[in-house]
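Dear H.,

Thanks for agreeing to be a second pair of eyes. The structure we're designing against is below in token form, covering all 414 positions.
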């Protein structure tokens, strides 16, 4: 024990005697570790923020809008426009791989007026199952139910941001809202969705689909029975492409065009988008991690270099120690431990620096689509594992060179 403490003390004296060289070497390793953790942490924050944005829509959502059926394959400008209908929705809802679906009527030209304010925002007509497909947590009151839809009740559910505009500091539930002069009773308020006030869900008004279609159908000639779009979900996440193809087949049959032509459809598969984004983030993390590992490797090379220089400078000291009885094993252990300590201390400084910087960044509001960076356990384990290998290599080779010196030859060195 006493011998080990003496060796550690001797190591720190040697490092202190070459302060600038030791500092620069340790800085290189600390920079490499910190860069690796920070770069991967930033990428993971971007991934997490993007995932939250997708989750604010709902789980495994597919969107389907009206489109244009090309008369010439590969030419989306040819052919004719088609609009979605309620019959399309019913057929898609009955498809084998579709778990749930909802028709959506959407207007943005309806004026909402309360006793204290007015607002021009989105009014959306949906069926009760819509809040099982989309992420719409209730803050107050209730969601639309089957009775509202069947009886075409004049009830509405509003977003939290719209409450601030139309009912500042006043009770909301059971209050009356005029939509283009038609009276609606507010029965529920949706919790804020997304980051801050930037999600348009917070400014929407939801009413029963049957009521919306009676008072506020889609505008345009021949569109009286059209719907704006359809939201649906696959039975399981892995079936999203099967559900999408079944919906496309329905439209092809109902509207008389080739459903195999991708140019005929205007749809969005959020599952596929999420998988694509995840692959991009994986590639980005691999690239950023590689940059950090290269920096870390350069730092390890610096440790090997400083240890070789240290061995060369202390050749006479090594010869003298071996002449008075020091074994090759003790010399090997001292120089090996010196290289290992340099990498370990540098790595700890790099981890602490990266963690401190990430904590500091988390105190500031993050841009939309970003979460504060955080240490990823895998990248931290990779950094520490790389450090262990670097420490062993950086300490073992110079230590072995020192231990193999013959005392007589070492004492002859100037």
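And this is the sequence the design step returned. I haven't edited it by hand at all.
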């Amino acid at each position: 024990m006493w011998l080990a403490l003496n060796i550690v003390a001797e190591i720190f004296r040697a490092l202190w005697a070459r302060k600038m060289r030791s500092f620069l070497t340790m800085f290189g390793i600390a920079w490499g570790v910190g860069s690796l953790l920070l770069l991967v942490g930033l990428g993971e924050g971007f991934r997490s923020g993007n995932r939250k944005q997708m989750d604010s829509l709902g789980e495994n959502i597919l969107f389907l809008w009206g489109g244009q059926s090309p008369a010439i394959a590969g030419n989306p400008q040819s052919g004719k426009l088609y609009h979605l209908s309620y019959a399309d929705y019913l057929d898609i809802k009955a498809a084998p791989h579709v778990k749930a679906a909802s028709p959506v009527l959407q207007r943005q030209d309806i004026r909402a007026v309360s006793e204290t304010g007015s607002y021009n925002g989105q009014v959306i007509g949906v069926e009760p199952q819509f809040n099982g497909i989309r992420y719409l947590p209730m803050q107050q009151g209730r969601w639309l139910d089957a009775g509202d839809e069947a009886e075409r009740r004049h009830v509405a559910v509003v977003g939290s941001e719209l409450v601030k505009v139309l009912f500042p500091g006043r009770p909301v539930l059971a209050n009356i809202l005029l939509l283009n002069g038609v009276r609606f009773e507010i029965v529920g308020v949706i919790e804020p969705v997304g980051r801050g006030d930037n999600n348009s869900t917070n400014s929407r008004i939801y009413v029963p689909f049957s009521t919306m279609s009676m008072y506020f159908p889609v505008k345009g000639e021949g569109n009286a029975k059209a719907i704006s779009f359809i939201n649906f979900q696959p039975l399981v996440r892995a079936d999203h492409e099967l559900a999408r193809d079944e919906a496309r087949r329905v439209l092809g049959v109902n509207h008389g065009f080739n459903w195999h032509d991708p140019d005929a459809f205007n749809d969005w598969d959020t599952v596929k988008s999420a998988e694509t984004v995840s692959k991009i983030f994986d590639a980005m993390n691999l690239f950023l991690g590689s940059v950090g590992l290269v920096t870390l490797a350069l730092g390890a090379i610096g440790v090997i270099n400083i240890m070789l220089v240290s061995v060369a400078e202390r050749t006479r000291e090594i010869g003298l120690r071996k002449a008075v009885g020091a074994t090759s094993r003790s010399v090997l252990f001292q120089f090996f431990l010196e290289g290992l300590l340099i990498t370990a201390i540098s790595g700890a400084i790099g981890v602490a620096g990266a963690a401190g910087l990430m904590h500091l960044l988390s105190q500031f509001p993050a841009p939309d689509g970003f979460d504060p960076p955080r240490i990823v356990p895998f990248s931290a384990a990779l950094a520490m594992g790389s450090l262990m290998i670097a420490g062993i290599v950086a300490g073992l080779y110079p230590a072995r060179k020192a231990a193999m010196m013959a005392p007589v030859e070492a004492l002859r060195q100037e």
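Two observations from my side: The chain has a mean pLDDT of 79. Residues 2-54+275-412 form one domain.

Warmly,
E.
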